[in-house]
Task: structure prediction
Amino acid sequence: MISVVLPAFNESGMLDATVAAIHEGFISRKISFEIQIVENGSTDETNQIAEEICSRLPEVSTQSLGYADYGEALRAGLKSSVGEVAIIFDVDYFDLDFADSALEVLDWSANPTGPVVVVGSKRAPGSSDNRSRLRRLATAIFSGILRRQFGISLSDTHGMKVLNLAALRGVIDECQCGADLFDTEVIIRAERAGMIVAEVPVNVTELRPSRTSILRRVPRTLGGIVRLRRVLGPVPKD
Result:
């Protein structure tokens, strides 16, 4: 089974359409799946809409954290997922073609020693990133810091992902960071445990402006990196 984890914060305007598109896509693919909506701290009708979706689509479930935290929403969704494979989508950023490509790379049933994470990279060769120049620059700087400070091999760690959840449950349990860095910590810990991670290029077109400005996000992310360095320590020497 595949578990789709979908964090939702103030997504009343888009949640229904997004879930319907994902649901229809997996039904048409004849794949066993569930969709986990994780509402976190919404002040609009997101929670009520999620409940209504669950009442008519048996493959969909929802939970509410009661506070806004993207990383904690991912953690909660992954820990409650029952699938062997998990797909991380955002309400405003999902791509079923990416899921097809990433699942082919993951190939968890035929190749249990293959990649445990496949990231949809906005910076890999062949990708197309239509976000603002400032946001592209911020992603490049963040990725550079991760390479230097943590030795990470991927060109991007944020955004869509497919995970071999059966192999990563122990790694997920060890992760301590939330907010913007939970999924980054998963990737770093997986690599340091000797697991393989991979990436495929994606096309990025935002369906709406980011809710968090660069000026607010950069200090928060830098503070998170400092904490992540304390938690994980320096790059292990060979």
About this structure: The longest strand covers residues 2-8. The chain has one domain: 2-232.
